[in-house]
Amino acid sequence: MHKIVLFDGDCNFCDHSVQFIIKRDPKGHFKFTSIQSDTGKKMLNQLNVPEDTNSFILIANNKTYSKSSAALQICKELKGLWKIFYFLLIVPRPIRDLFYGILANNRYKWFGKKESCMLPSPEIRERFL
Q1: Which of 40, 43, 73, 85 could form a disulfide with 33 if both were Cys (CB 3.0 to 4.6 A apart)?
Q2: What is the pLDDT of residues 9-67, one digit of tens each?
Q3: Under a CB-based contact definition with an 8 Å cutoff, are residues 13 and 107 in contact?
Q4: 3-class SS at 59?
C-alpha cells in the first residue's frame, strides 16, 4: 500500500524535501500531492485538515501524521542512514513540533517560494497524484 505525502507545492524547502524522499525511496512506497492541488484539497477536506495547514501530512496505514511525526515516519522508510532519525519519536511531540514549527513558519523567508514547477520524468510523474 502506498503512503501519501501532502506538501506545500509553493515552498522551495518542501519541494526539495519531496525530491529528497524520491531519491531515497527507490521502491516507490510514497506518492505525493501538493496541498494546493485539487487532489490535495480534497484529501485535506476528507481528513478535516485546514487548507492553510503549515505541515507535511503523511497518510499511511489508515493513519494521518503531521509535523514532526510525519517527517520521522517518512525517515523510517528511507534507504540509508536516514532511518536512524526515527528514534527521535521518543522526544515528546510538543518539543519536536516546536522545532518543526520554527522551520515551517520561516520556510518561505529562509528558502523562498517556487516560481515554477519542475517537470518530472515519466517514472517520477507516476508518483504524483
Answers
A1: 40
A2: 888 888 889 999 999 998 899 999 999 889 999 998 998 887 677 888 999 988 999 99
A3: yes
A4: strand
How far, in Å, CA of 74 to CA of 120, rounded? 21
For residue 61, report the phi and psi dihedrals to the nearest 5 degrees: 50, 45
The predicted-structure confidence for 55-67, as pLDDT tens digits, reads as follows 889 999 889 999 9
Beta strands in the chain (DSSP E): 3-7, 30-34, 57-60, 63-66
> Cell 524547502 maps to which residue?
13
Question: Exposure of 116 by Cβ count < 10 A (0-12 exposed, 13-18 middle, 19+ buried)?
Answer: exposed
Cell numbers linked to 103: 522551520
pLDDT at 116: 58
**C-alpha–C-alpha distance, residues 117 and 127, integer Å:** 15
**Among 75, 60, 97, 83, which Cα is nearest to 21's?**
75
Q: Which residue has the cell 515516519?
A: 73
